[in-house]
Specification:
The protein has one helix at residues 2-17; strands at residues 25-38, 42-44, 49-51, 54-68, 73-87, 92-107, 113-128, 131-150, 153-168, 176-191. With 192 residues, the protein is mostly beta strands. An 8-stranded antiparallel β-barrel has the order 1-4-5-6-7-8-9-10. Strands 2-3 form a two-stranded antiparallel sheet. The longest helix is centred in the N-terminal third of the chain and has 16 residues, at 2-17.
């Protein structure tokens, strides 16, 4: 519950801070979908099975406020929400990630292409049928590229990496419980 309160407070800070609009401030809303890959080993403790990397589905929503230094680059912050579901033979893993993030944005000279990089730290959860939901600290790193069809609408692709940490393992108190995953998501972006 503390994690949810912290995330709600972070989102409130991000949204309220953006009300102080500076010249060159750009607000971006994006929705993306694509494949995700859990690279961590997953265990089913009931039948003692171990599974390696497996692909799933990723859905993301993101808000970014960028303070453009000039027409070509800027710095900013935002908020990312990501949901992943991955099916294994005996169970399904559902992961949620919510966090504020810091970003750097670069545009090409013709203002049609934009590249961005983001880093964030926030909260993450993981849930399976055989285990209760776990909450913990999560990190993300992202690189993206976007083509601006109009000055206010673009299509893009992001490569994301997520790492979640949930404390010590249920089966071994000397090892950490966590999950790492990658995603390639494609989506639409609206710039205000």
């Amino acid at each position: 519950m503390k994690v949810l309160k912290l995330l709600a407070l972070s989102l409130l800070c991000v949204v309220s801070t953006t009300n102080v609009l500076a010249q060159g401030t750009e607000h971006t809303f994006s929705v993306s979908y694509g494949p995700g890959l859990i690279t961590s080993k997953m265990y089913n403790y009931s039948n003692r099975e171990e599974y390696s990397s497996r692909g799933g589905k990723e859905v993301q929503g993101e808000y970014t406020c960028t303070f453009m230094k000039n027409d070509y680059w800027g710095l900013g912050f935002g908020f990312l929400g990501s949901y992943n579901t991955t099916s294994y033979p005996d169970f399904t893993v559902k992961q949620l990630y919510l966090a504020p993030e810091f970003n750097v944005s670069i545009k090409t000279r013709n203002q049609k292409w934009r590249m961005k990089g983001c880093l964030g730290i926030g909260g993450g959860s993981m849930e399976t049928e055989y285990d209760e939901k776990k909450w913990g600290v999560a990190l993300n790193a992202s690189l993206g590229c976007e083509y601006l069809i109009t000055p206010h609408f673009g299509l893009g692709v992001d490569l994301d990496e997520f790492a979640s940490f949930f404390g010590t393992s249920d089966s071994d108190k000397y090892s950490l419980d966590g999950c790492a995953r990658y995603a390639i998501v494609f989506g639409a972006r609206i710039h205000l």
